[in-house]
Design goal:
- The complex is a heterodimer of chains A (232) and B (112).
- Chain A is of the alpha/beta class and 232 residues long.
- Chain A has one domain: Class I glutamine amidotransferase (GATase) domain (Rossmann fold), CATH 3.40.50.
- Chain A contains 5 helices and 11 strands, in the order βαββαβαββββαβββα.
- In chain A, the strands form 2 sheets. Chain A has a 9-stranded mixed β-sheet with strand order 2-1-3-4-11-10-9-6-7, sandwiched between helices.
- In chain A, α2 links the parallel β3 and β4.
- Chain B is of the alpha+beta class and 112 residues long.
- In chain B, 49% of the residues lie in helices and 21% in strands.
- Chain B has 4 helices and 3 strands; from the N terminus they run ααβαβαβ.
- The longest helix of chain B has 19 residues.
- In chain B, 11% of the residues are buried.
- The mean pLDDT of chain B is 87.
- Classes of the chains: A alpha/beta (232), B alpha+beta (112).
- At the A-B interface, loops of A face α3 of B.
């Protein structure tokens, strides 16, 4: 599967994603510059974490207008896979490729820590290698990761099984006490109606090698590699 | 003629008249630019932890009588052009598309 990782001014997790895909999963991967109007031949686009445009105005607010985002929107519309990690999730929401928005953590602090997330559904190209209810230990690092959407949007996400991962404790219990940022319904990641665009705040690329303390992030990438055939 | 005026009215008055007329001409020739003053606020349905923290800080300073505090953004856009109706439309679009996120924010503006 061919991966493309978009780079904005201020993206800083692009190289980690590249390393995981190229060196851990041995997949063809290339960078896409934010000014590029075409993506080239890619199956899955990664919008990586970081601080694109310094998070000026709002996180992701300016990046969404980059020429490459138009191409990514077209790629998504045609059924291509897109995964937005952290700042990538923020950009996808600002670009309306995903509903809702990410706002300031309710405790106002930037949180850099390992958290547990529970896999809510395996009916997606991003979680099909997991078990339903599986707990993954993946790090977060964000100041604006609290997911917000109007009640009717949250209802539709629940009804359509589009909440892919929720913050939980190590036993898989979803409680307010383990919600690191105040996200509604402990939402850590969602997908679009076509189930081909996924946004999540945790960093699976930082949990794909034993050296970094957890390999649970591998399940996301393995799902992408395994499940693409079903959804494309 | 200038020298004659100086003789009749006195040099100070003439100097004042010359300088004043220069100022008037400068302000007529210099085009005043309109400004859009935009306020972006979090929607009432959105949790505003910044606002809460500021409220707590004000109260700890001894400031009572505060019901609520919400923190937003002020953006000033200096404009060229003088078609106010046209500028209003453009600023509204800019607010909707970029300067605010309608999912979580509301905006208002005036153009003067």
């Amino acid at each position: 599967m061919k991966f493309g990782i978009i780079q904005f001014p201020g993206s800083n997790c692009d190289q980690d994603c590249y390393h995981v895909l190229a060196d851990v999963f041995c997949q063809p991967v290339r960078y896409i510059w934010h000014k590029d109007k075409t993506l080239g031949d890619v199956d899955c686009v990664i919008v990586p974490g970081g601080f694109s445009y310094g998070d000026y105005l709002r996180a992701g607010a300016i990046a969404r207008f980059s020429p490459a985002m138009k191409a990514i929107a077209a790629h998504a519309k045609a059924g291509g896979l897109v995964i937005g990690i952290c700042n990538g999730f923020q950009i996808l929401c600002e670009a309306h490729l995903l509903p809702g928005a990410l706002i300031r953590n309710r405790g106002l602090k930037f949180i850099c820590d390992h958290v547990y997330v529970r896999v809510e559904t395996i009916d997606s190209p991003f979680t099909n290698a997991c078990r339903r209810g599986q707990v993954l230990r993946i790090p977060i690092a964000h100041g604006e990761g609290s997911y917000f959407a109007e009640p009717e949007v949250i209802e539709s996400l629940e009804r359509e099984d589009r909440i892919l991962v929720r913050y939980c404790d190590k036993n898989g219990n979803v409680t307010d006490a383990v919600n690191p940022n105040g996200s509604l319904e402990n939402i850590a990641g969602i997908c679009n109606e076509g189930r081909n665009v996924f946004g999540l705040m945790p960093h699976p690329e930082r949990a794909s090698e034993e050296l970094l303390g957890s390999e649970d992030g591998r399940f996301i990438f393995e799902s992408i590699l395994r499940g693409a055939a079903v959804y494309q | 003629m200038f020298l004659k005026a100086m003789k009749v009215f006195g040099s100070n008055f003439v100097a004042f008249a010359v300088i004043s007329s220069c100022h008037i001409w400068r302000s007529v020739l210099k085009k005043a630019h309109m400004k859009a003053r935009i306020i972006v606020m979090p929607k009432k349905t959105v949790l505003d932890p910044q606002g809460k923290t500021v409220k707590n800080a004000l109260e700890s300073m001894g400031f009572c009588s505060i019901k609520d505090v919400r923190v937003g953004k002020f953006i000033e856009v200096e404009l060229t052009g003088d078609n106010k109706a046209e500028l209003k439309k453009k600023i509204d679009k800019a607010c909707h598309d970029l300067l605010s996120n309608p999912v979580i924010e509301e905006y208002s503006f005036e153009i003067k």
